[in-house]
Amino acid sequence: MNKPRLNSLFKSVVKPLSLALVVCLSASCSNEKEALNSPQQTISLIAAPIELKVGEGFKAPVGYYESTPRFSWQMPQNSQSSAQSAYQIQVSSTPELFSTQPDLWDSSKINSTNTSWIHYQGQPLSSRQQVYWRVRLWDESDKASRWSDVQTLELGLLKNEDWQAKWIGHPDTALANQPSKDLIATPQYFRKSFTLSNKVADARLYITAKGVFKPYINGDEVSAKDVMTPGWTPYSQRIETLTYDLTDKLNLGENTIAASLAGGWYSARVADLKEPEHTLPPRLLAQLEITLIDGTKQTITTDETWKATQQGPIRFASNYDGERYDQAFEMPNWNRTKFDSSSWQNAYAQDIDNAIKLRPKRHEPIRIVDELSPIALLEHNENSVIFDFGQNMVGVPRLNIPVVANQQVKVEFAEALHKGEFYTDNYRSALSTNFYSPAKTEFIQYQPTFTFHGYRYIKLSGFDASKAPSKDWVTSLVQHSDIKLYNNFNSSHPKLNKLFSNINWGLRGNFYDIPLDCPQRDERLGWTGDANAFVTPSMYIADVYGFWSAWLESMREEQANDGMIPLYVPFITWIDWASSGWGDAATIIPWELYTMTGDETILAENYDMMKKWVDYHTSQSTNSISKMKTFGDWLQPYPKAEGKGANRGDTDFNLIGTAFYARSVELTLKAATVLQKQADIDALSALHARIKNAFRTHFFDEQLTPKKGEATQTAYLLALEFNLFNAQEKLKAQELLIALIGQADNHLRTGFLGTPLLTSVLQDAGRSDLIYQLLFKETYPSWFYSINNGATTTWERWNSYSLEDGFNPQGMNSLNHYAYGTVSRWFYEGILGIQQTLPGFKEFKVSPQFSHYLDQANGTVHTMNGEIEINWFVKADEVSINLVVPKNSAAILDLTHLQAVTVSQNGIQISNHEKLTPGEYQINGKL
């Protein structure tokens, strides 16, 4: 069924009123009445649920992607109740129906402690439909709550058949005209005027592109902060669409919708692939659906009646090579109604190809989320000046500078200075340069539209040399996918806090619609190995579940028929083989997301991909020993190998492949168990046993010395973390690992695959003291080494850069790579000591790891039930811990490393404190 959003006349009458008032009058105020009419209830109702969300954390979304939404909520932390025993969800097409009977779904009372991922089970929902929902709960004493505030949910266009629009482009770019690369690389501009005969009750713009677009309505940006939309997906299979509410942006009478368009990831080059770049012409697709207050509907779609030109001011745009802007081509008011477009041509139009799915975007787009001002001006002369922003970041500059007519302005970017000199060699073939050609001598304002840069420094040249440069000439606009950063860890050690900041900035710079490996050089790809390392740390640091879920959909689409997972997603033909430790993202990421959220949907969506990847592993193995290619323990420090092979580390490749083969089978087995797939459970259990046995006998002798290759830290880390030694051998393997670390003067010798496992394995061995030593090392290789050398993000190599020598001459020197930020996982699971024992942290262990390195640490872990809060202090041998256990959760205290432990709640000491119910606790003990 396709219910209207709201009756147009009704909307015109109640629009001045808030939805909250309408809902109160029509629905929520019926709580007491419902309670009195129920023989099970009294008028004393407990606090209503809060934090109502759908899907992976959306609040009141417009243009939502799921036709069967998942509902989640929380119990208020100030409630007198501790746990939920039942819930009731109601969904309706209008808020008024809550006072009588909701017409879409009433779950009735469901006995369950679950407060998240509840699947809608009502009447089928359809494209454009707006629905209202609310929830109430019963606590552990079966007391009912008030109804929650009503939340809205509006679906986007869910299928291709919902689109009446056509893809449009400038007619000269039609492939039949054999357009040149230069022509395709020139951005396109479109406009369409239309008249409205009455006031607007409701208007939605559905829009997307093969390429990247910037939309306007009546001269104003539809969304000034959205950039590089719609983002990057496997374009031959699926293109994401966005929905914008334009209800308040349309006028009675004449209106104009407009957009500019460039190639982005679709048409401009990807990586260093210059041959195929600018061969596919970008295309725009838009559909503006309007309901007037008299009920009349009007739809404006992209088609041949739109006007198009390529004579606009942006003359070239590329993700990697920057943007060229020519002031002489400016078209004042080109996107407004009062503009003469007679010289423009009619657009070229193409029908939608139903083989390519058009689907609503399932996570927030890239946006301008912050602004940074320079902290210093460097190397100023009459020709150029360098601006230092003090922070490696991703985005574009906003210029406010004096220019001279016909004197080109050049804007260059760098991550660091090489021995004091401006340096761009580590960008490799990415030009990463913007050019502005002024037609007048004046102060101009300019910010690029269709490119992005990774940088800390900007070099500006070609400005009016008669004017003295100042810091207000340039502002950096920080861009990344619009995710919520929690800023949820702090300690008494400044360098540890700086490391946490650096890791956060690494996340911000590389969560750019997909999880990039780096944001600055000629790569910027969704490398799966980097993602494996960082997926769980990122979930602690930020609200990124929707981000990862969306990327996994692209991974499923890119999986080959034989089960192969490419090295990076989306895939472009560049490196076309699979790697162990990289492709295992197909099993690792879904499982890690499930354990962090408790959402079985992520396993159900990806289970077939997990199984197919296991099958591919099997096809690349002989007698359960993997022969798959691998990048190895990428960029392990002090490798014995030489040349390019040194980048892959010293750990035996087949050992790596077999270990990850076993791991992928184990995680797929766990997923099968959650999803109750008994036949698969039996087969996967047997397969895992065979691989484990083969791994042990093939790679290690009786003394657990590797039979082939080097005895490396990573070899033992893989075997221990993936449980590939039996219980009797585990202690011996731990001793051998610790001995290897000792031989390295208590430094790590791990790359991309080994480093994420260090903290978990060592804490399991009871050696958190050694983790602290590794973490607080000041010398190479260590995290603090990079900080001592000016790092403001995490690096690709442990020694990518030094203040004395500049960039490492070996290459592969991205200064913004999040993989080694994986250590932040231990900030939460080790230093704070919070580890989930049930998926989604419904139950969790509390076991902070103390050290003389820290006097204090505090932080939060965000869960579906609320925030776990912990703050601990150490003075001499006295330990004090403040702990908050969220509602509907339980905490298991593991403080065996403390003596004389006491636990108090509300000032009253608790005798049985092994398992804590929701509340605030004060814990004391002695080291």
From TrEMBL:
<feature type="domain" description="Bacterial alpha-L-rhamnosidase N-terminal">
    <location>
        <begin position="199"/>
        <end position="369"/>
    </location>
</feature>
<dbReference type="InterPro" id="IPR035398">
    <property type="entry name" value="Bac_rhamnosid_C"/>
</dbReference>
<dbReference type="InterPro" id="IPR012341">
    <property type="entry name" value="6hp_glycosidase-like_sf"/>
</dbReference>
<dbReference type="InterPro" id="IPR013783">
    <property type="entry name" value="Ig-like_fold"/>
</dbReference>
<dbReference type="Pfam" id="PF05592">
    <property type="entry name" value="Bac_rhamnosid"/>
</dbReference>
<feature type="domain" description="Alpha-L-rhamnosidase six-hairpin glycosidase">
    <location>
        <begin position="488"/>
        <end position="830"/>
    </location>
</feature>
<dbReference type="InterPro" id="IPR035396">
    <property type="entry name" value="Bac_rhamnosid6H"/>
</dbReference>
<dbReference type="Pfam" id="PF25788">
    <property type="entry name" value="Ig_Rha78A_N"/>
</dbReference>
<feature type="domain" description="Alpha-L-rhamnosidase C-terminal">
    <location>
        <begin position="833"/>
        <end position="904"/>
    </location>
</feature>
<dbReference type="GO" id="GO:0016787">
    <property type="term" value="F:hydrolase activity"/>
</dbReference>
<dbReference type="Pfam" id="PF08531">
    <property type="entry name" value="Bac_rhamnosid_N"/>
</dbReference>
<dbReference type="InterPro" id="IPR016007">
    <property type="entry name" value="Alpha_rhamnosid"/>
</dbReference>
<dbReference type="InterPro" id="IPR008928">
    <property type="entry name" value="6-hairpin_glycosidase_sf"/>
</dbReference>
<dbReference type="Pfam" id="PF17389">
    <property type="entry name" value="Bac_rhamnosid6H"/>
</dbReference>
<keyword id="KW-0378">Hydrolase</keyword>
<protein>
    <recommendedName>
        <fullName>alpha-L-rhamnosidase</fullName>
        <ecNumber>3.2.1.40</ecNumber>
    </recommendedName>
</protein>
<dbReference type="Pfam" id="PF17390">
    <property type="entry name" value="Bac_rhamnosid_C"/>
</dbReference>
<dbReference type="InterPro" id="IPR013737">
    <property type="entry name" value="Bac_rhamnosid_N"/>
</dbReference>
<feature type="domain" description="Alpha-L-rhamnosidase concanavalin-like">
    <location>
        <begin position="380"/>
        <end position="478"/>
    </location>
</feature>
<dbReference type="InterPro" id="IPR008902">
    <property type="entry name" value="Rhamnosid_concanavalin"/>
</dbReference>
